[in-house]
Amino acid sequence: MADKKPFQFQRTLVIYNFIQVIVSCWLFYEGLDAGWLRTYSWKCQPVDFSRTPEAMRVARGVYIYFLAKISELLDTVFFVIRKKERQITFLHLYHHTVMPMISWGATKYYPGGHGTLIGVINSFVHIIMYTYYMLAAMGPQYQKFLFWKRHITTLQMLQFCVAFLHSSQLLFYDCGYPRWSVVFTLPNSIFFYYLFYDFYYKAYGKPGERNKKQLENGGPKRDNDKKEYVKHEYKVANGIKNGNNNDGKKVD
């Protein structure tokens, strides 16, 4: 495998990311319409273990969310066969290990209630994230629309802040939802926030630092500079270095 050329799956990646966007949209809508914008309490919400249509609808959404987390393991598979090992970081591995485990536990023991808000927020973030991945996979002509990559990381950090605050309410309100769950959710939210902040800092510098440097250098880059930057980013993303592709052929 080490001697073989990276596989290219442009069409497959576009379809895969599109499906993830559709599934995330459905999960986001179901979570809001089945609970959080209707009957659920934002302070503390117990799990409805009955077989009423409302309870079964929420349970179905939790189950589909679990299946979505399993399907997202393909992210790692695509990284490996495309030889994008640098993207298989500790953050990536931890995220794709913990989330299927948590969603499995929720599906089996607590398919609804207070903890589902985390899944709803996460589904919204994934709508944005997989839309970005889909556009990135569609080719260099779409790279100019992908200036908002770093804001996805900011959104991911924000979701863990909301998850922490929402879960911490269980310490003050008792509605029957297991309080012991905060032993997992609160430290995990903090740890995830730290990992994403560390990624943001290494990739983009401190929040606001780039804008400050641009002002010091006379403002944002000119259009020509932006075009060259986009061109460079596309080459790096597709394994093109120093003007040569994976076959050693010269490219523009």
Account of the 3D structure:
The chain is mainly α. It has 2 domains: 10-213, no CATH class; 221-252, no CATH class. Helix content is 64%, strand content 0%. It contains 9 helices and no strands. The longest helix is centred in the first third of the chain and has 27 residues, at 10-36. Residues 218-227, 229-237 and 239-252 have low confidence and may be disordered.
Global geometry: globular
Q: Into how many domains do the coordinates divide?
A: 2
Average residue-wise pLDDT: 85
Tell me the series of helices and strands, N- to C-terminal.
HHHHHHHHH
- Rounded to the nearest angstrom, the distance between the terminal CA atoms is 28 Å
**Approximate strand percentage:** under 5%
Number of helices: 9
